[in-house]
């Protein structure tokens, strides 16, 4: 987290004008006064608006709950003055006391638990903490959609409870669904990984969990998918996100960067999207009507509001010098379709922009309508919170045993067993009586919750978790993850020589990878590698290496060291991480997590400047491409990798071999391009009839119950015109629990338009004709796709 309280986490350190900071403090003061100090009252918060105790309420139509929301919204907008409107399109919206409306702070966060990043949420008093789930990259590794939904449901219970107690808002700017494009990205930990299909499913499930399935379009809390779009560089090699122009092809935008956002809006029905700091093809995303107005609102039909990243309107004026005047910058944002500014810029410059005729008051009304509609869907204009749905949630609904158990379960499901030489794991707690627990992450707490976290209910560190099974000898080995010296190595070696087994908990923390901090390399920092090798050489028993990190780590040295018998990736496993790690090591949990991103070797970095957004390789420059979909070089561990203590076999029992595509538009009328002969546009196909069902039997050949994740990939046909450059892509995944020795049948749906289509260089989705391949583990199956005459 940043040190300055006024700009908190998304801290923009550019040259802010003095005027801006003066106005910020004015706004803050206004809110404090108008909301009567902190809005915590005995037994709950003061109603945000339409307080039944206020006689005014009965006369205000926007307070009448039986009137349709769009009518109430227009009624309220009709009563506001221009000056009031201008102060309502910023995150710290002013109070309008003459209409009985309190101030509202729009900025709260709940990436993996209610977070204290953002001024809208405050821990303390009756809310000392909230359940801190594993960081998203870890939860993504579970490949379990019902888990993601359930976490969202629990987080929004706690969020509503904190809102009711006046400790949080109802608008949470989570999740972060940018594609984890480059392994160095400091914020990759916040995301569900590198694959668009996985990220899309995660986004839709978590958002649905958070927002609830209210009657009509009622919202439990309002989620926000961010940062739209192609934002995944923070600060690398002298280039930062405030100045970066991401050059993105139409093809990569459509089949990679936009995919999770589209799913957020269409499947998740998210109530908000945030535009990013960076430019895309020369335009700041928050000033691009093509991205905001045409794509998010037009094509996808967002029912909600579009918010800027914090200070990003200011950033494109001050540091990108995108417009000549600040009024133009304000006008561009509103014209592009921005509804809310996180930051003071619109509060300061909108009035002059209107006076100069760059935008009209009506443009502002459209933005306000989007904002107030969301507040009304949240019930904020329905009077007493305690009288509403979720109104009974309070402090006793936060950090409940069930919620904390789910945080533990999520960590167990997310841990990935990378290596298990000679089935060294699980360790038997009866045969292994003493364990040396070594490493800079072996007794950590806050490291386990990663960034965009809150205050956890409590922690179980790895050392504490392991100590519940066996007697432990603890040696840090390195003072911190930077591991600048070897002074503590000797004691660590002695510990591992004297014990029955050794567990090294190594890896990264926020000092290595974070917001505004991209990594410079993929190896373990400092002398960590040397510590691991020396301890392994000294060890008497099996050596287990646990990596705690958000991004991938090149652990080739350990993979190749016969003395290191097992490697686990724990990600940032959340408040109960230590219990989960121990449960996996001692076999109480059979690991089933899979890597949501490729683990590249260090050498990969020299060929890929972080600034090149291209997903596809470029043979003429030697650029190798990105992610398992396009990169074909050596890897340390591939996307989807993850072992179990059981062995699973898969058999295809029902598998259609061909499918005919019929057209909704006659073939002759279709566009004339190089693709015409070998593929057809999805928009021209009769997609409804193109669904195929497959059955796969999964058998657990081992002696332990376990979960297996079926990853279904498709591979388009190769032909003369092929320029998809896509090898294979994930089309769906199915996680099943299979008891030892038994068999489960899994139904897999493959939809031709959705799953077998590819995107051409114009960003148009097409179905290539010919033989497509489905890959399910080692199974390969060919499907012939033909046109119907
Ligand atoms: C298709 O495009 C080619 C090259 O642009 C052109 O010569 C040809 O006439 C076009 N055919 C049709 C049917 O439009
Ligand atoms: C997915 O997660 C849910 C919630 O924790 C759990 O009940 C379910 O068993 C998990 N599914 C599998 C196959 O492990
Ligand atoms: C593939 O498409 C790119 C443009 O996206 C183009 O530059 C390249 O020449 C094409 N390659 C082939 C083999 O057609």
From TrEMBL:
Q: Where is the Fibronectin type III-like domain?
A: 708-780
**One Pfam family this sequence matches:** Glyco_hydro_3
SMART domains for this protein: Fn3_like (SM01217)
Instruction: Spell out the subcellular localization from the entry.
Output: Secreted
Keywords in alphabetical order, please.
Glycoprotein, Glycosidase, Hydrolase, Membrane, Secreted, Signal, Transmembrane, Transmembrane helix
BP-aspect Gene Ontology terms: arabinan catabolic process; xylan catabolic process
Q: Which GO terms describe its molecular function?
A: alpha-L-arabinofuranosidase activity; xylan 1,4-beta-xylosidase activity
Gene3D superfamilies per the UniProt record, alphabetical: Glycoside hydrolase family 3 C-terminal domain, Glycoside hydrolase, family 3, N-terminal domain, Immunoglobulins
| Transmembrane segments annotated in the record for this chain | 18-41
Q: Name one GO cellular component term.
A: apoplast
Q: Which InterPro entries match?
A: BXL, Fn3-like, GH, Glyco_hydro_3_C, Glyco_hydro_3_C_sf, Glyco_hydro_3_N, Glyco_hydro_3_N_sf, Ig-like_fold
Q: Which PANTHER family match?
A: BETA-D-XYLOSIDASE 1, SUGAR HYDROLASE-RELATED
- Return the protein name: Fibronectin type III-like domain-containing protein
What is the organism of origin for this protein? Answer: Arachis hypogaea (Peanut)
């Amino acid at each position: 987290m940043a040190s300055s309280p006024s700009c908190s986490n998304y801290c923009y350190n550019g040259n802010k004008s003095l005027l801006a900071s003066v106005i910020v403090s004015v706004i803050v003061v206004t809110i404090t006064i108008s909301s009567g100090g902190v809005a915590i009252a005995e037994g709950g918060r003061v109603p945000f608006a339409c307080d039944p105790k206020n006689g005014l309420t009965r006369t205000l139509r926007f307070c009448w709950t039986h009137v349709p929301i769009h009518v109430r919204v227009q009624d309220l907008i009709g009563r506001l003055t221009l000056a009031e409107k201008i102060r309502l399109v910023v995150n710290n919206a002013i109070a309008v006391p003459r209409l009985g409306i309190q101030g509202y702070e729009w900025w709260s966060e709940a990436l993996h638990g209610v977070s204290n990043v953002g001024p809208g949420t405050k821990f303390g008093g009756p809310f000392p903490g909230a359940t801190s789930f594993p960081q998203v990259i870890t939860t993504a590794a579970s490949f379990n959609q019902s888990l993601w939904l359930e976490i969202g449901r629990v987080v929004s219970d706690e969020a509503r409870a904190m809102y009711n107690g006046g400790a949080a808002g109802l608008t949470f700017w989570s999740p972060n669904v940018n594609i984890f494009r480059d392994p160095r990205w400091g914020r990759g930990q916040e995301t569900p990984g590198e694959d668009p299909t996985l990220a899309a499913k995660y986004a839709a499930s978590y958002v649905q969990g958070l927002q609830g399935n209210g009657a009509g379009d009622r919202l439990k809390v309002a989620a926000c998918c961010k940062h739209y779009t192609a934002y995944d560089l923070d600060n690398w090699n002298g280039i930062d996100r405030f100045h970066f122009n991401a050059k993105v092809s139409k093809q990569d935008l459509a089949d990679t960067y936009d995919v999770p956002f589209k799913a957020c809006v269409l499947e998740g029905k998210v109530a908000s999207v945030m535009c990013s700091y960076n430019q895309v093809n020369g335009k700041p995303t928050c000033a691009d009507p093509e991205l905001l107005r045409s794509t998010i609102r037009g094509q996808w039909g967002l029912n909600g509001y579009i918010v800027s990243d914090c200070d990003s309107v200011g950033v494109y004026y001050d540091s990108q010098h995108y417009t000549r005047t600040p009024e133009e910058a304000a006008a561009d944002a509103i014209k592009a379709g921005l509804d809310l500014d996180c930051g003071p810029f619109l509060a300061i410059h909108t009035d002059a922009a209107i006076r100069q005729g760059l935008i009209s008051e009506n443009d502002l009304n459209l933005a306000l309508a989007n904002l107030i509609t969301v507040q009304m869907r949240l019930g904020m204009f329905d009077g007493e919170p305690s009288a509403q749905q979720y109104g009974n949630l309070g402090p006793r609904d936060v950090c409940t045993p069930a919620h904390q158990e789910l945080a533990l379960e999520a960590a167990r499901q997310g841990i990935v067993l990378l290596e298990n030489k000679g089935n060294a794991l699980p360790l038997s707690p009866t045969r292994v009586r003493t364990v040396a627990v070594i490493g800079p992450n072996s007794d950590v707490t806050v490291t386990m919750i990663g960034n965009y976290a809150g205050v956890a209910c409590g922690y179980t560190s790895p050392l504490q978790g392991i100590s519940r099974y066996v007697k432990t000898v603890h040696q840090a080995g390195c003072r911190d993850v930077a591991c600048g010296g070897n002074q503590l190595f000797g004691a660590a070696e002695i510990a591992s020589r004297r014990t029955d087994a050794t567990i090294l908990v190594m890896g990264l923390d926020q000092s290595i990878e974070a917001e505004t901090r991209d990594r410079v390399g993929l190896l373990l920092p400092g002398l960590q590698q040397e510590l691991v090798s020396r301890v392994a050489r000294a060890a008497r028993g099996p050596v287990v290496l646990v990596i705690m990190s958000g991004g991938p780590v090149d652990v080739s040295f350990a993979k190749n060291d016969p003395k290191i018998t097992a490697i686990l990736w724990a990600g940032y496993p959340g408040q109960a991480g230590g219990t989960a790690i121990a449960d996996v090591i001692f076999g109480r949990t059979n690991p089933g997590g899979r890597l949501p991103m490729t683990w590249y070797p260090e050498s990969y970095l020299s060929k890929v400047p972080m600034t090149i957004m291209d997903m596809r390789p470029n043979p003429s420059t030697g650029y190798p491409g990105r992610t398992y979909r396009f990169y074909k070089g050596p890897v340390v561990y591939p996307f989807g990798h993850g072992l179990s203590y059981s062995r699973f076999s898969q058999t295809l029992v029902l598998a259609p071999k061909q499918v005919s595509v019929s057209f909704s538009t006659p073939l002759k009328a279709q566009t004339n391009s190089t693709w015409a002969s070998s593929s057809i546009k999805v928009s021209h196909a009769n997609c409804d009839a193109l669904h195929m069902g497959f059955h796969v039997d999964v058998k657990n050949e081992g002696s332990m119950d376990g979960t297996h994740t079926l990853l279904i990939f498709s591979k388009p046909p190769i032909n003369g015109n092929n320029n998809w450059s896509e090898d294979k892509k994930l089309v769906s995944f199915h996680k099943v629990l299979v008891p030892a020795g038994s068999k489960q049948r899994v139904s897999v749906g493959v939809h031709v338009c959705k799953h077998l289509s590819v995107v051409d260089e114009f960003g148009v989705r097409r179905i290539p004709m010919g033989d497509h391949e489905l890959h399910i583990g080692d199974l390969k199956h060919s499907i012939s796709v033909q046109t119907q005459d």
